């Protein structure tokens, strides 16, 4: 069974930088997994931040960036703001039309 | 503008089926895929499957393979997701989300339908 793992939580100070990662139990994450990143606040649908590893979705501030770090996908928030206080989920494409969501990371800005 | 409109809520008994609708507007459906994602209370999202709106091809998450069906009605621009043999742990918000083919990105989401399975 494919499991996509993320850190459960991070705390970051306003103006600080935090890097979230997205790993795969069966091996390394690469660009072929087309990593996407979504932000979600309670009661709302997810909002697309990053697609295809490092492409920012329309309207997303440039303080959000995506990359591959070692064997994981990564989302970096540079200069965190109060409204970045949210849950963040990665999604990996596993081939054959199949996708898997990560376990999610709760980011607290304080 | 682009919209995906879903009903607010459905209630079903255990063992029953539910069909959730997702009415699309503001874009050409055949250029996109439609995904379905669910989120149980207090849990993260879970991908259910994909429907290619150019040819009707589907692919479902293995966990749901034997009890999920995705279809669409071109005349009303509405996509449907049917889940059968419902259990209490199917209680969740069910979202539709579109993907411009080959972008691997769920760029627009419906607001979600809360499906409650309870006796």
Please explain how this structure is put together.
The complex is a heterodimer of chains A (110) and B (119). Chain A has 110 residues and is mostly beta strands. Chain A has strands at residues 4-6, 9-12, 17-24, 36-40, 47-51, 55-56, 64-69, 72-78, 86-95, 98-101, 105-109. In chain A, strands 2, 4, 5, 6, 9, 10 and 11 form a seven-stranded mixed beta sheet that branches. The mean pLDDT of chain A is 96. Chain B has strands at residues 3-5, 9-12, 18-25, 32-39, 45-52, 58-60, 68-73, 78-83, 92-100, 108-109, 113-117. Chain B contains no helices and eleven strands. Chain B starts with a strand and ends with a strand. In chain B, a hairpin with a 4-residue loop joins strand 7 and strand 8 (78-83). The A-B interface holds A 34, 36, 38, 40, 45-48, 51-52, 57, 87, 89, 91, 93, 96-104 and B 35, 37, 44-47, 50, 59, 61-62, 95, 97, 103-107, 109-112.
Salient structural properties:
heterodimer; A: 110 residues; seven-stranded mixed beta sheet; four-stranded antiparallel beta sheet; globular; B: 119 residues; mainly beta; 52% strand
A few lines on this structure:
Chain A has 110 residues and is an all-beta fold. Chain A has strands at 4-6, 9-12, 17-24, 36-40, 47-51, 55-56, 64-69, 72-78, 86-95, 98-101, 105-109. With 119 residues, chain B is mainly beta.
Topology (elements, then pairings):
The complex is a heterodimer of chains A (110) and B (119).
Chain A: E1 4-6, E2 9-12, E3 17-24, E4 36-40, E5 47-51, E6 55-56, E7 64-69, E8 72-78, E9 86-95, E10 98-101, E11 105-109
Parallel strand pairs in A: 2-11
Antiparallel strand pairs in A: 1-3, 3-8, 4-5, 4-9, 5-6, 7-8, 9-10, 9-11
Chain B: E1 3-5, E2 9-12, E3 18-25, E4 32-39, E5 45-52, E6 58-60, E7 68-73, E8 78-83, E9 92-100, E10 108-109, E11 113-117
